[in-house]
């Protein structure tokens, strides 16, 4: 029985480590969305024209061109406020999953693949972009897991 208890505690992160990891992931996610939202708003016409060139969303391009950066900014603020951090990570995961689905569908259905994400991220190939998104989704899921296990640990200690 004692060896089983030792095995369970072998992968234990301190509350400080857990909090630092969540904070680090939060800052990376916040920076990504603020950066991409800024790039899409500053060069909105280019972003809109890029969306219009994707056949699967042409009819919704105008709405999407405003919805995406506004959603990224809203998610940034959800991640910024400690009381809404968990919802910010859920919003981040949801948006990144939608973006990843868009990338997969574009890879499968489009002949010409224009990238209009903004800034340095546009330099990635579509396959690299797919892996980039998946890595960020994984990071956010880890942050949610760390956040939830910290809450469970704190509730258990009381």
TrEMBL record:
Keywords: Membrane, Transmembrane, Transmembrane helix. It is found in: Membrane. The chain crosses the membrane at residues 21-42, 54-80, 87-109, 129-147. The keyword Transmembrane applies. It is a multi-pass membrane protein. The keyword Cell membrane does not apply. Its main location: membrane. It comes from the Bacteria. Residues 22-146 form the Methylamine utilisation protein MauE domain. InterPro entries: Methylamine_util_MauE. This is Methylamine utilisation protein MauE domain-containing protein.
């Amino acid at each position: 029985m004692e060896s089983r208890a030792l095995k369970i505690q072998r992968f234990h992160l301190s509350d400080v480590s857990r909090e630092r990891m969540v904070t680090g992931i939060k800052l990376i996610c916040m920076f990504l969305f603020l950066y991409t939202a800024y790039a899409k708003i500053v060069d909105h016409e280019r972003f809109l024209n890029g969306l219009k060139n994707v056949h699967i969303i042409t009819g919704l391009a105008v709405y999407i061109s405003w919805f995406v950066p506004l959603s990224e900014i809203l998610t940034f603020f959800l991640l910024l406020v400690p009381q809404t951090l968990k919802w910010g990570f859920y919003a981040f995961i949801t948006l990144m999953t939608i973006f990843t689905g868009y990338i997969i569908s574009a890879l499968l259905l489009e002949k010409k693949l224009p990238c209009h994400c903004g800034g340095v991220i546009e330099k990635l190939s579509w396959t690299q972009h797919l892996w980039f998104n998946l890595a960020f989704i994984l990071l956010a899921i880890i942050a949610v897991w760390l956040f939830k296990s910290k809450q469970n640990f704190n509730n258990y200690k009381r």
